[in-house]
Amino acid sequence: MIGEENSYTEQNMIDAQYETDALLEHLVYHDNVAPFLTTRIMQRFGVSNPSPRYVKTCVEAFKTGLYTSSGTSFGDSSYGSLEALSACIVLDREATDEALYEDPAFGSLREPIIMVMNLLRSMEYSNTLPTVGLDGPPLAEFYNVRLYKMNEKIGQSPHDFPSVFSFFLPEYVPEAGPALSAQLAAPEATILDMPKIIGIQNGMISLIKYGLSDCNDGYASYPGYKWCSGKCDTNTMGID
Amino acid sequence: MCCPHYHYILFDCVHVAHLEFCFFSSADDGLYYRSIGHLARVPAGTTIAELVSEVSLLLTAGRLSQDNRDTIEAACSSETDHDAQFRCIQQLIVFSTEFHSTNKMEKSGEDRAVDTTTVVASTEPYKGLVYLYISGGLDSFHLLAPHTCAPINVYERFRAIRGKNSLSEGIGMKLDEMLVIDGNNPDQPCSTFGIHPNLPILQTLYNDGDAAFIANAGLMAEPVDVNNYRQMTPVQLFAHNAMNRNTQKEDIFDEFVGTGVQGRIADVLKGKDMPVNVFSISGTQAVNVGEPGGAAPFILSSSGLSDFNKSPSISDMNTVIRSLNNATRKDSGFFAETFANKLSEAMTSHEQLKAELDAVDVSTVFPDSGIAAQLKMVAQLMKTRESRGVVRDMFYVEQGGYDTHSNMQINLVNKFTELNAALEAFVAEVKQQGLWDSVTLVQFSEFARTLDPNTGNGSDHAWGANHFHIGGGLAGGKVRGLYPDDFVQSPSNPIALSRGRMVPTYPWDAMWKGTATWFGIEEGPEMDKVLPMHSNFPGKTYSAADLYV
Predict the structure, then answer these.
(1) What is the pLDDT of residues B332-386, one digit of tens each?
(2) Considering only CB atoms, which chain A residues are within 8 Å of B278?
(3) What H or E segment, with its residue span, contains residue A139?
(4) CA B97 to CA B265: how far, in whole Å?
(5) B518: closest CA among B404, B438, B424, B400?
(6) From start to end of B163-307, where are the E strands?
(7) Around Cβ B240, how many Cβ atoms within 10 Å?
(8) What does the alpha-carbon distance between residue B93 and residue A1 come to, in Å, rounded to a whole number?
């Protein structure tokens, strides 16, 4: 590219660098950037269909880099402050006012992995690895919580997007129910299909009943010892 | 069972050298034997009402409705053990809509309507349609390459645009690599073509008259050329997500918003009292979506269906779960209702389908790959057609990994080998079931790839592609469409964009039209609904008489 005849690009290195920089600036300051980021982050924070006023307020926060709430300021006043944007999103009245519970169109479905984390944290998951040393993998003394193949089981696994389009389509409208009639987005409904629903529910009740294991569609992998209710065969006892 | 149930004592009931293995089973007994950790919270409350409030606060931020609290209290009070009661409450709350959404919810007091579509007896013979989606943009000039062509040596042009020069062989298939087939079409610039060496099943089926290709086809709204394609094709042409979605929908102007071809076919057939099921073995897919309010397509995984709520903790637990998710008021939280509806539907369809699938197996051995497992599930599902009472089935399966921007040739060898083995097993099984003449598999991908290579031994996004279909009823053994004879962009070439990207000469509708007719869609309003753009392509679509014997 550089140095080619009839090329529309710059002919020497420093000019190419300036040109790249100019393109990046153009993209970062593009008018679409703030609303795009704002609406998607709002959706991750539990508001699937933010109102135009809410979006506008937080777009301003992103662009000015400043958000003030009850006398406290967030952000360093430069364009693109995620601190200002995040503060705006979680502190705005559309995220905090209890009156919104009365609006049936407000809120969102919850993300599968967030629900699993809620269960683990609120019910105080605690590690009970045996202190007796066990031979070899898969279980080592330093494993703490190990959720296994969550993408297949619940359709979501932390940091493991199936593609550049993430887990949820931001404009997804469910194909049945009141959200469809009202044409409301419910991104988490993208993966609300029969195998996933069965998967996430089976996994959670397995966690509650048997602890974190692989019993009856549990979220963990085979721990290398013991077996699930009713089974007593050589395979699960680790015998050849 | 073989092992006595002793607390904290190691017992050796079968001769094992390593005494550190414990032989206790993991049951819902609060002992958590087969686990690496468990939920260890000690409840702060004592009465069942206090426990329900506590868990409701922690898991639903207190949203749990009074109605559901009462139901849960009643259901879990049968547990006498305090810990078991706590576990019961947790289980039922994770089934509630207040946990699955951030809405408050209020029941209407009525029972949730159940989809009681009665099976209408039909004398129609069964037909099955399998939509094989190759995801990533299949480099389909590796699927079908020019071989012997006269008077223009299309093969030499092909090798040239694919990067053959004094320094390199380029990425074009060589003559001696190809599995040669007769084009059987005097309108083509070549008399023979070549199939990729790792797809011998396609050559076999083609020579049996059970497979055919359409050359240089793609997503179009109407016929275009290099001068007007951008404004006349209002789609992001080289973007995966847009082309994937629109290839599956085949409705660029959104005449039937949100629907896809197979979904619309299902809607039309149901309207004619032909019982039909639609399945995806690979997630929610646009191609399967029909009009709102229509029956939802089944979505399975290739491992089929696992048990739901095995060994429930309380009796009639599924009844309690349904009652927690019963119909809500029209002005009650929309997302709560969305979940409640989905869960109830999921439980019903799961029950039905599991019973049917558990009763069947296939006799052919399928290889160990994702696409093979999906096709095996398709074959198993076809066996359950009578108990499901359908005369038409449509399936979606997908093989990914074809976005070969780099190291394309090696990647294609692996992917095609995998695909070939899966198709071989599938064809064998369908023949064994006596359904080969009743089943068609159509293959699509979002676009082809640039004939011109990039610097990573791969190619980038293009448009016009070659695609195939297979089935016993096909008038196969022919290369339809119009294979390009000039791949280089120039003022005299109406269909070549830069870098060997071809403007398609035939639309996706070409294969769909004849396939839909075979499947039961009539000309006129029915076909206009299934393929809203098909009338834009006079002479560039195929009828069932063209495509089928």
Answers:
(1) 999 999 999 999 988 998 898 888 888 888 999 999 999 999 999 999 999 999 8
(2) none
(3) none
(4) 33
(5) B438
(6) 179-182, 190-195, 211-218, 276-280, 298-299
(7) 18
(8) 61
Euclidean distance between CA atoms B132 and B427, whole angstroms: 14
Length of chain A, in residues: 240
DSSP of B312-361: -SSTTHHHHHHHHT--B-TTS-HHHHHHHHHHHHHHHHHHHHHHHHHT--
Residues of chain B found within 8 Å of residue A220, distances taken between Cβ atoms:
35-36
Reported ipTM: the value is 0.87
Give the CB-side neighbour count of residue B374, counting CA atoms within 13 A.
24
B133 closest CA partner among B385, B458, B375: B375
Provide the residue type at A85 as one letter.
L
Contact B394, B462 (CB under 8 A): no
Q: Is the pTM of the predicted complex or chain greater than 0.90?
A: no
Residues 80-119 of A with CB under 8 A from B: 101-102, 104-110, 115, 118-119
Alpha-carbon distance of A69 to A96, in angstroms, equals 12
Name which of B472, B479, B478 is nearest B431 in CA terms.
B472
**Contact at 8 Å (CB) between B547 and B518?**
yes
CA distance A167 to chain B (A): 12
CA distance B35 to B204: 51
CA dist A195 and B310 (Å) reads: 15
CA Rg, chain B, in Å?
28
What is d(CA B226, CA B213) in angstroms, rounded to the nearest whole number? 24
